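Hi R.,

Here are the chain sequences for the assembly we discussed:
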Amino acid sequence: MALLDVKDLSIHFGGVKAVQNVSFSIDAGIVYAVIGPNGAGKTTLFNLITGVYKPTSGEIRLDGESIGGKSPNELATRGVARTFQNLQICMNMSAIENVMVGAHLRLDRNLIKAALRLPSLKRRDAEMREEAAELMRFVGLEQFIEARADCMPYGALKRLEIARALAMKPRLIFLDEPAAGLNPKETIEVDHLVRKVADSGVTVVLVEHDMKMVMNLSDRILVLDYGKKLAEGTGAEVRQNPDVIAAYLGAHA
Amino acid sequence: MKKSVFYGLYILIAILIVLPFFIPNAFYMDLVIRMAINAVIVLGLNLLIGFAGQISLGHAGFLGIGAYASAVLPTHFGWHPLLAMGAGAAVTGLLAALVARPIFKLKGHYLAMATLGLGIIINITIRNEGTWTGGPDGMPVPSLGLFGFDLTSDKHWYWVVALLLSISVWASLNLIDSPFGRALRALHGSEVASQVVGVDIVRYKVAIFVLSAVFASLMGSVTAHYVGFVTPNLADFFHSIELVTMVVIGGMASVYGSIVGAVLLTALPQALATFEGWETVAFGAILMLCMIFMPKGLVPTLAAKFGKGEQ
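And here is the predicted structure of the full complex:
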C-alpha cells in the first residue's frame, strides 16, 4: 500500500479552482517531485496535504487513514513534516531553538514542570539541544549552532527549516522549493542534502523549479498545470510527455 | 538559553536583600513595594504579550477580580483571606479560559477588543454592585494573616513581595527556556511553522492567557491586602493600559525588561509631580520618546547596544 494516497483532491478559493481533481499516490521511501509552471497549484497542494488548507473535496489518506481536513498539528503527530517556500523561521529565537521547536511533540511540554525547572525536564532538554546541534551539522550549519536566527543568511535559513522538520523525526517530509533563491553552488549542496535525507529513510516530496535537481533526485514526478494533473511518471516519461512540453514551452500540442 | 541569564536573577535578589537598608522613609518603602507588585503583574503580562505575541487590554480587570475577592469574601462571608485569594485566582482563570477559547480561534485584533470589553465589564460590575463592593467608593480589606501572624508593617510586606518577585522571575526564566516556552515563542515567530511541527496554537495561547490572568489576579489580592482598601480604579481601563505600557517600555519578551518597565512607570508619576498639572503631558512625552528611539523597549535596546544576549 502506498504511504500517501490522494484522490480527486480539489480546493476552490471563490471562483478560483487552485487544485482540481488531482489524484496520485506516493510509495514509502521514494523521492517524489511536484513540478509545474508558477501558479500551477504546487504549494496549494502542499498546504492541502499538510493541513494548512482544508480541501473543498477529495480524499487524502496516510497509511490508509483519512487525513483530509485535519489540522497541521494533528498531522505532525502522524509524522508529516514540511518546509516553506517563503521562509517560516522564528526570528525571535536562536537557530538551535528553531530546530528544538521541531522536536516539540517528542518533549514533555508540561507548564508546571517547566516553571519548576524539574531536573528530568532539563536533562531531556540538554539531550535535545545536543541532538539539534547534531541535526544542524547534518544539514551543514555547524558554524551557526550558536547563532541567532535573524543574523543568518537566506541560504542557511532554508537549511535550518529542513533541520527543524527533521527534528520531528518525520516519516514524510514536504520540501517546498528548497533551492529557490540559492546560487548554483548552494543548489548542489541542497541537492546532496535532500539525497541524504531520503537515504536516512524519510519519504521526500519535493516542489522545485530547478529541473536538473528534480531529474537528478526524483523517483517519480507529478506535473501540475492550472491546478490540474498534467502527467505523472518517472523523469524520462514526464520529459517525453507532449502535454508537459506544451505547458513548459508554450507550444500548442 | 545560556546560564548567564540567571545572573540577572542573582543580582536582583542581591538588590532586594540590601535595598531595605537604603530606603529612607515610609514613602519610599511604599513606592518600592508597589514597584515590586507591578513587576510581578508585568512579568505575567509580558509572557503573554512579549513572548507569545498576544495582547490583553483588560488585565486590570483580572487584577480587580483578585482584589475584590480578597475584599468581599472575607468581609461578607468570613472566608480565610488565603482561601479568598485562591477563589479569586480560580474564578479569574476560568473566566479567562472561557473568553480566550473562542477568541483565539480568530486572528487579528479580536483579542484586543474582547479583552478590552471584558476589562470594562468587570470594572462596571464592581462599580454597580455597591452592596457587596462599596461601589465607586471602594471598600476596606481585612489584613492578611499568615500562619497566625498578621501582615501589617511595610517591612513585612516588603519581604513578602520581594520573595514573590524573585520566585516569579525564576519561574519565568525557567518557563521561557523549556519546551512549553519555546512553543510559545515559536507561535509568536510563525504560527504556521509552529502548527506544522505540532504545536496546538489555540491551546498554548489560551494557556498563557490564563496563566497571566491568574498572575494578575493573585497580585490583585496582594495589592488589596497591602493597601488595605480597594477601589474600582484598580480594575479600570487606564490601569490596563498602564500595565501594557510597562511591558512595552521595559521591553517585550524581556524578563528583566518587565521589572525595569514596572519600576520606571511606577516611579515616574511621583518624579513628575513637580510639573504640577502637566505631569500627564510630561509622562506622555517620555513614553513617545522611548517608543521613537527605543521601539524594542529599554532592556533589549541597551542589551543589544552592549552586545549581550538578553532574555
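The first strand of chain B starts at residue 139 and ends at 140. Residues 201-227 of chain B form the longest helix (27 residues).

Let me know if anything looks off.

Best,
T.
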